[in-house]
Design brief:
The complex is a heterodimer.
Chain A: H1 2-23, E1 24-26, E2 31-40, E3 46-52, E4 55-57, E5 64-69, E6 73-86, E7 89-103, H2 107-116, H3 122-143, H4 146-149, H5 153-170, E8 173-188
Antiparallel strand pairs in A: 1-4, 2-3, 2-5, 6-7, 7-8
Chain B: H1 2-27, E1 28-30, E2 35-44, E3 50-56, E4 59-61, E5 69-73, E6 77-90, E7 93-107, H2 111-120, H3 126-147, H4 150-153, H5 157-173, E8 177-189
Antiparallel strand pairs in B: 1-4, 2-3, 2-5, 6-7, 7-8
The chains are: A alpha+beta, B alpha+beta.
Chain lengths: 189, 190
Amino acid sequence: MTVVVVLIVVIAMVAEMAVYASRYKKVPPSKAMVVYGRKMHPGKKIGYTVISGGGRFMLPIIESFDYLDLRAMGLDLRLDDLHTTFKGAPAKASCRVTAVVKVSSERNALYAASEHLLGKSREEMAHIAELVTEGAIRERFRHEPFEDLDRDFDMWAGYFQTTVAGSLLNIGLEPRCLNMHDTNLEGVA
Amino acid sequence: MVSTSVLVAVVIELVAVIGVLVIYAVGYTKVPPNMAMVLKKVRRYPDGTSRRMVVVGGGRFLIPGSGGCDFIDLSVHPVRLQMSGLKTTLGGNPAKATIDMLFLVKVSSEKEALQVAAENLVGKTEEEFMGIAREALEASLRRMFQELPYEEIEPDRDTLAGNIQRMICVPLREMGIDVRDARLFHIQVQ
């Protein structure tokens, strides 16, 4: 009888450890884990939490998880037909822009990314970032004379940080750098 | 004899516990942060209206066979609009505008707007949602160009943002759609 009880206890312990091992999920540094399935309280009452680094035991049945990829994505945009002005006359310009964006590791932005970007591939995220960046650059060209745009690259960095960064952070993305290359005037009307 | 009846009782209890757990596991539906769950069950509200319940985040136990639920995607989608022949005025004279714009749209996460979205957008695919958003954006843009002279639409980024907020975001919010960002790629008036 004692042997049976000991056997049952051992089997129970092994089963418990197996369940724990299978449900303990580790988070690599390049990812954030979104845990959902029940009301959680990370500051306010919402039904999910985001963990970056470490790991967590997933409660069987009621908790599930997904990962957000935090690795940087490179953007390479070749923009033609940029409407601007040169010495007061309407003109067209072209430029090449390279930028690096990533899903932000900042806490609030991670929550925004969980809602807006979870389930999207890196290509889809990069596509959204490219469109927002292209729009911001086209707007800048439209409102600034080309001679100012071509001269002041520090201004670009500031503009990128305030305008593009704000838009991207809204959806959980974060720009890391922006470089302008080959800014050319294509023609003056 | 006693030990056999105890054993039978333990087995029955175990089967019952496992049965309950299985039913719970089958019926418990989790809601990812990028989704909203719309229950088939209609709830009567104190104002006399009856609407389907919407759950955002967390999860809920749905009795198996009770009808289940639908999901609405809350993630953001880019919609690029290239429109020409927009009626407006330039210097007081009738003019036509051509625009190329980007909008980042999503189903609103706010309670009231999400309830509206649950009625309008449930069961729609991503393409169908983007088609609806595109049509609503086109209608709002046409209205904005008709009501405002060209000079007032985009003298600078802040004015454009204000116009978009007032004349595009508000009407779309009434349909349960949020505009997260708008970028004007190109505008031309003839």
